[in-house]
Amino acid sequence: SQQGEEDPQALSIQEGENATMNCSYKTSINNLQWYRQNSGRGLVHLILIRSNEREKHSGRLRVTLDTSKKSSSLLITASRAADTASYFCATDRLDDYKLSFGAGTTVTVRA
Amino acid sequence: DTEVTQTPKHLVMGMTNKKSLKCEQHMGHRAMYWYKQKAKKPPELMFVYSYEKLSINESVPSRFSPECPNSSLLNLHLHALQPEDSALYLCASSQVGSTGGYQPQHFGDGTRLSIL
After folding, report:
1. Which among B56, B99, B110 is the nearest to A42, CB-wise?
2. d(C-alpha A106, C-alpha A92), whole Å
3. Mean pLDDT of each 10-residue bin along chain B, 116 residues long
């Protein structure tokens, strides 16, 4: 089931620029994750942030989580053409196998 | 290359056919999932298996029949599908957390299914 919303729906940036996308959700969560999906491929797990964490980094990725606002953001720094993909946030709850995905943000990085 | 292997990559079938989708993982994961994804939409959960037992069925029509013959394999049997069932079918696997909850999921590249 789809719990969250993401904005923007689509983002077009120049190579080297930063890309920021936001995710909002409705119910309390255990973890929030971000996935990337290249065209015609499966989803790739990027980063997981737990509900008691506020910020996490992985390479060129920075994720923030604000549980009081039920929102998260994903920042991709120094974007590359290979970052062109759809990005989904997904939340889960304790003792629950289900992932609730946001609607996704389509990112296009222009060379 | 993904660690979850799905076959076939593409499948075209008529509404009266019977076919199966296959998913295989060798990461020792004990939770496996089937998702349906329409174009430009997020994946929708269909089924979850935990320790080879069906634990979640998201009210999926009976024309979709999952099977988990062992801890590495997951099948989805298809029969009498409708044109609206055309979609990308994704398989995923994960470890099972100590509280029975979720661990990051690893996805295959999916089977692109077209119903004529």
Report:
1. B110
2. 22
3. 89 94 95 95 95 93 97 97 96 80 84 96
